[in-house]
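Example record used in the benchmark description.
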Amino acid sequence: MSKIIDVIYGLENLLPLKPASIEAIENIEIELALPLAEEYKEYLLKYGAIMADDVELTGVAKSQNRDVVQVTQREWAANRKIKHNLYVVENVGIEGIIIWQDGSGKIYESSPNNSAKQIANSLAEYLEAK
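Model output (structure tokens):
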């Protein structure tokens, strides 16, 4: 297994959705007009989207609060300081903190009306630090 799959598999009380298709992942990239990190694609192909203790990642989901396209577009509109090369991987739900990822896999954090600052080199690293 890859690092991200191992890390997610080890989360407490993991509740995955159904795996995403390659077509669904390609559609996300088209709709957002940006590349997804390979690590995020692996996660989507295995889990679709997840909830676990202290984490709820975006992905391919019917819920507007977990669908990566809907959440990203909503957060882009809410914070004009966010560059459109980032997509939302998690809405922390505390003080408007949003966790973003870029196509290279780096993880960023933003708060309302503030630019995103890098906090991890990968989604796996971010989750391990939680």
